[in-house]
């Protein structure tokens, strides 16, 4: 079932902006009313180096970047589905890696992180190795700008209980933001497969917090936190005390039986809108369409 929400209220204060969403007011709809007809691209890769387990995809500048979390290779395809390049996990030496935890693509650079080897590798747009730096953060997601880098600490309390490290690319100076919610401190290492995303028209980055219904917005120029949005599903929220790792099995039962929303599966900015995708219980799926001021669209 495809549904979307239709009327809500927005409250804000200095620390948190709350968006109230009443899923009981959802109605059936068609995604085709909001999106153009899908285009299918058949990926053509050699049998000697296949895509085994596609994990996440980035579209940029007419290219398709695909991370395989079985082989840990990064594949680059053109818009016709032909392989343009691959960066392979092939060793532990300089310029090599064995485990890709995340990757980031800019206009002329490709960055790959291997937390097992504690390194972050930099390649040019053709996949030629440039350099590597030491990375001992044990983060999951990351983002590299011209003057700074941001690392998501995956709820580890190693940095004064903050969830993000902002590192100056020139001086190495570290600054921290977004205090970790108490129930989520030191839970199992988790990432967001969509990573830190850009909204070019608003000069912002955004990131959906795993195991939560919160989204952080970061100023793209400074690399510091701008706003945190809490999507409040009312009676369908998961109580904070149920979110800890030791309660994961109990949480699954609660989500199923009480038709709760435990997290945000996707938030995506396109054109002048956001689309929010959440699952309620086991079988209900909601697509919530909002303008860039978070007013919910009918």
UniProtKB/TrEMBL annotation:
This is NHL repeat containing protein. It holds the Pfam family DUF5128. InterPro entries: 6-blade_b-propeller_TolB-like (IPR011042). The lineage of its organism: Bacteria, Pseudomonadati, Bacteroidota, Cytophagia, Cytophagales. It comes from the Bacteria.
